[in-house]
């Protein structure tokens, strides 16, 4: 009977034409949720990648960590570092035809400043003092204190991007929403079907290089397996993203099947924080031994299928101010063992794990239990550590419980990520001073924690480039020498595309999606 | 009968009230902070001040009693609050996604009945012969197959290998075939097995023997004397299947990218979207209670003994 049933279904199915063909000039992409109302000054449910398609910033972040002119053609800084004067491009219009000018910049910045509390996490906004239009295309921005990462943070996708002034709500306050998402960017949002898809069309009046695709359809696909299948059946043409749009083994499988698959340069670092404020990781020798005990190359080839690269320092040397000549802790299990022996952590005859004065060498490793990749990594770490006599107890919890541990410091070792470009290193080190961060908690046991925090503060406000580099060198060297982190891999964005997508590139940060650069191909 | 229905409907009020209190407390006892989840969704680092601000925005900084009082007060008026994730009124979202789920679950229920009843009859008719073995084997596989796994297998076969069916999304009837198969497979197997057992039990009853002695044809005996009496457990089971199918859509909608409330609820659970979880739970409870009521009414209609007893009790 089952055979009959299946047979009948096959019969029905045989009469159906295969899934509809891909319309040329349309790029099909997928995302776990709808793109949202695309308010340039608000967060969830507006999706960053889509805000970046519709709205633009004054300056653009470059892969080398510098910023280039964008909507602002040039700028000058006052002697005291508190006043920035931007000269805007005079050939930019919003996609509805309105002129982008100083008045538009002021209207947008004022509503952002009025809602400071919502943007409290971003130092840039707290530093804004006032903004005024000096001429039709000249804007002056006053800061409270000198703040060197200003330009990097102005490049962020939110909140400093620009909505056509006519689309502001009557009160001018975008916290209440926007009338329609009209920006200056290369794409326009034209249709949203809740739970199904969003459609973007090319902005034909775009001032810059116009995209090659006419249309981008973003289908709502929450499940990563479903996403991979959709690529294989041609329902989508492109998989792109930095937060595991598909699993590493699926990436490897699709690549083996002949799809175009690429990995971006390092975007951020996956590093385990070692708690210096909790036994036994409060012992420097233990932290150093952990750093020597892990075989990262094998980890990367087996679990990540080569989709990430080995990290030896907290920030990739390619990140700004981070090429400070730190000596990697190489993989050397024998050295790890001897470090532990010297520090008094010895292996009793017949025992699997070391102990010191009756205290077992036992460390809780916290990870997100529902994250299959993180779980596998945790298991590999556990096995590598066991080889040198360290017992790692795996603490796999649901995501929200995991984040609670990051905040209250209740961990021995915990997974974490730096924030990536353009936040690294300045915003990430800045957060090390905040008690609700795993980094602050992990560093609490350091004798020079107060000094590190003070130096971070100085580095952020210093106007002297040489001095700033010195401060960063000192901060990063101290953290490295104290082995507060076990850097594992440099995280990357992954891209898988069908043959009909050409000119594949990556954005400079994980929030820049290079749709405008992609080209349809036969 | 009308009194019976009204009484049962009135009973829904204390049930929903009780469930709402239980659920309100339980989801707040689970680890994880919705404010932190909201910040993660927004790519905002959860600094203490950001968390405090998010809590305030989401109305989570008030005492739980006051949260419950204002929530239930509004819920009675049909206002279930605003989703933390989509920032839209929950009831609007649910109403938007509900039709797709009802369509999927409805077709699945129909499919379950249309296939399982003949299978059960066939199996009982040929007890211990090959059709019976086949159906029993099928039922065994059915109850042991997780729906999401079956879903992926179907996709592998029909979308990837044969390229006959679209793997995801909502569109024509082709889009429904695999989700319906995957979500109804278990209910279908249970139903077929249940009907078989029930029919065999009824077949050994005395009234069936007398019917045969009266010289009625096998077909007539089966239809009028076995099947009708054997249907009672199926009615109960079908009532449960409605709930199961709606619950099954939680998983299946995510697998097939089906834009219904199942996927919406799963997203809500992941992001600790309390208003959505609360509304969705109450909705499911209501469905379960109503299905049970319908089952009871059908019982009375199918079985005169129950109907007469109930009327005598009035």
From TrEMBL, chain A:
This protein's record includes keyword Signal: yes
Keywords: Signal
Main location: periplasm
Solute-binding protein family domain span: 67-435
Key word Signal present: yes
Record InterPro entries: CntA-like, Peptide/Ni-bd, SBP_5, SBP_5_dom
UniProt signal peptide: 1-19
Subcellular location: Periplasm
Family stated for the protein in its record: Belongs to the bacterial solute-binding protein 5 family.
Name under which the protein is recorded: Nickel ABC transporter substrate-binding protein
UniProtKB/TrEMBL annotation, chain B:
Subcellular location field: Cell membrane
This protein's name: Nickel ABC transporter permease subunit NikB
SUPFAM superfamilies: MetI-like
Membrane association type: Multi-pass membrane protein
Family, similarity comment: Belongs to the binding-protein-dependent transport system permease family. OppBC subfamily.
Segments traversing the membrane: 9-30, 102-122, 134-160, 172-190, 280-302
Keyword set includes Ion transport: yes
Domain ABC transmembrane type-1 span(s) in chain numbering: 98-295
Keywords for this protein: Cell membrane, Ion transport, Membrane, Nickel, Nickel transport, Transmembrane, Transmembrane helix, Transport
InterPro entries: BPD_transp_1_N, MetI-like, MetI-like_sf, Nickel_NikB, Opp2B
CDD domains hit by this protein: TM_PBP2 (cd06261)
PANTHER family: DIPEPTIDE TRANSPORT SYSTEM PERMEASE PROTEIN DPPB-RELATED
Main location per the UniProt record: membrane
PROSITE patterns in UniProt: ABC_TM1
